[in-house]
Amino acid sequence: MSAPNLQEIHDTLIEVAQKAGDMILNARPSFQSAGNKKNSVDLVTETDQAVEKMVSTTLREKYPDYSFLGEETYKPGMTLGSGPTFICDPIDGTTNFVHGHPYVSISLGFTIDKRPVVGVVYNPFRKDLFTAIEGKGAFLNRTTRLPYKQEPEPLEGLNNALVAVEWGSDRHGNNYDIKWNTYRKLAANKDNGGSMVHSLRSLGSAALNLCHVATGTFDAYWEAGCWAWDVAAGWVILKEAGGLIASANPGEWTPAVDGRKYFAVRGAPSGQKELVEELWAQVDGKFDYSA
Ligand code: LIP
């Protein structure tokens, strides 16, 4: 097999994302008609399925030797292999989609040796196209290099930070308790053992959270429970914008793209590692998604 042509893959993924964007914009979703997967907040629509079908058919025809991993065709036990692989979330932010809230994206990543090397995230409602190829920088709408501030400010602690988090679809048990307790501590004032972050944000799309950390408009994004298709594309976009990705679990500096635990920090001349350690100190326990 010849080495993947990353520029060509990037251009193909942009074309596919824009076609998917038209399908998403033309759909008329409602939360009454959405189906459930694991539980009543893990939603899927006919549009998620139709977009993934279009994406997988197009990519398999053009790149028959490469693997494909998609949210809507995933079955328990499937794993991300080390060969060249397309990773697709047809609609990241399905909950927003069914409520008509415009933070929705299609997220298309390409990995080699389980490392994201091309990423395309497209929000058709806002016409925001985030893209990156490993080693070639990250861009918004092809021309604006990320981060927005080409000389970003140093990170000066959680008490100056705007931090993205998500509720996810697991709403019980130890993993949920860790999230909830950490959110409380991040928001609380210092007298109550908290970090008093500027605020917490939830865009409802992991891919868009990562892209907004890449722009520098969020300082960090901490989440556990989401999947490789939620983060693969945003991962390379963030790294190409100078960001760092550790694990949501304290002490884990080198997370796996399919490890389901992530902590992204924006590019900065200093303070990235300190911010990671400061947030980890607020996390009681370790997420475990092995069951
Ligand atoms: C969603 C994410 C969201 C996360 C949810 C879910 P979906 O993806 O992007 O940020 O908290 O667990 O995975 O289901 O809309 O593709």
UniProtKB/TrEMBL annotation:
Pfam families: Inositol_P (PF00459)
A Gene Ontology molecular function term of the record: metal ion binding
Keyword Hydrolase in record: yes
Cofactor(s) needed by this chain: Mg(2+)
Binding site for Mg(2+): 71, 89, 91-92, 230
Keyword Metal-binding: yes
Gene3D superfamilies for this protein: 3.40.190.80, Fructose-1,6-Bisphosphatase, subunit A, domain 1
Enzyme Commission code(s) on record: 3.1.3.25
Domain of life: Eukaryota
Alphabetical keyword list: Hydrolase, Magnesium, Metal-binding
Biological processes per GO annotation: inositol biosynthetic process; phosphatidylinositol phosphate biosynthetic process; signal transduction
Pathway: Polyol metabolism; myo-inositol biosynthesis; myo-inositol from D-glucose 6-phosphate: step 2/2
Reactions that this protein is recorded to catalyse: a myo-inositol phosphate + H2O = myo-inositol + phosphate
PROSITE patterns the record matches: IMP_2 (PS00630)
Family: Belongs to the inositol monophosphatase superfamily.
Protein name per UniProt: Inositol-1-monophosphatase
Organism: Xylona heveae (strain CBS 132557 / TC161)
